[in-house]
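Supplementary Text 2. Reproducibility record for the structural model of the 185-residue chain.

All settings were left at their defaults, and a single model was retained for analysis rather than an ensemble. We include the record here because the model underlies the residue-level annotations in Supplementary Table 4.
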Amino acid sequence: MNKETIEILEKLEKTADDFWNVSHQTGNFINMLIKLMGAKNVLELGTSNGYSGLWIADALKETGGHLTTIEFWEKRQCLAREYFEYCGLSDIATFKIGQAYDVIRDEINEEFDLIFIDANKQEYIKFFEVTHPLLKKGGVILADNITSHAKKVEDFVQAISSHPEYQVQILDLPDGLLMAYKHKE
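Retained model, structure tokens:
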């Protein structure tokens, strides 16, 4: 990780509550997982100020991959773009603005190795329905705030946990991170 990325991550950790960022531990875990998987194509739902995206893009720089990230609030994504530029990671990311469900349905038709869901908690079930066909077999869905927003994501957790194509584990990271592996068969 270059010094600019470390500097920005440390800066953003001080405003984590204002922008609903993932924890440092969760960002580090996602970064390591992408490297371990050798993931090349990642979709992020919920750019916010770019904190988790920087962890993702840093890993994708090592794997030679690309990040597509979607944010509803243009002001937040403008911040994220500035941080990506400063960190030398803007060439690794494509930024999209709008409702994640609509953007995915209308603009995205590629396959992903990893999908990270961290947007409107009550829409996780809709996000799963629209992203499931885009996840490669052997790919992973990660969803944040599974324990901190348990009631809001209950239908999503039930749906993905009972889906025959997925093996699911909720990880004991701050706010709870759901990890779902899509079987290869």
